[in-house]
Write a structure and sequence with these properties.
The protein is of the alpha+beta class. It contains four helices and five strands, in the order αβαααββββ.
């Protein structure tokens, strides 16, 4: 019983995505300034997701990128193709992610800065302790 409980405890809030060995990701994640403790917490918690996002952009595989989108969103793969088209070539360079104060718990906004060339704002959503990209259509009324 104790072993089963320890296994469950160690696996809770485990992200269903992981960083791969290649391509290498050059990403710095920080909270916006001035900011409250919530942005710092989101920056820590969402760092893996943001690293995986930049890596998937570099890979150029829309399905893999769509897989880190919130599962309840529709149309993720089409949006992923568009994101790869716009930002994929820049994702191999150093990228800075700046996390804004969340407006509400479980929803966050991140500005990705691709050198001095361009900026992208990503919305993130959290469910059961896992951060996801809010890409596609998440409105249940429009499904």
């Amino acid at each position: 019983m104790v072993v089963g409980t320890l296994v469950w405890w160690s696996q809770r809030d485990t992200a269903p995505y992981a960083l791969r060995d290649t391509p290498k990701v050059h990403l710095t994640v920080r909270a916006a300034t001035p900011t409250g403790p919530e942005a710092e917490e989101v920056a820590r918690e969402a760092e893996l997701l943001l690293q995986v996002y930049v890596q998937r952009l570099q890979d150029g595989d829309a399905k893999d990128l769509a897989d880190i989108g919130a599962p309840w969103y529709t149309g993720r793969e089409a949006v992923a193709r568009d994101l790869i088209s716009k930002f994929g070539a820049q994702a191999g360079r150093p990228v800075q992610a700046v996390v804004a104060d969340p407006v509400t718990p479980g929803l966050a906004s991140v500005e990705l800065r691709y050198g001095s060339e361009s900026r992208q704002t990503l919305d993130l959503t959290r469910d059961d302790g896992v951060w996801w990209l809010a890409i596609g259509n998440g409105d249940p009324v429009k499904r």
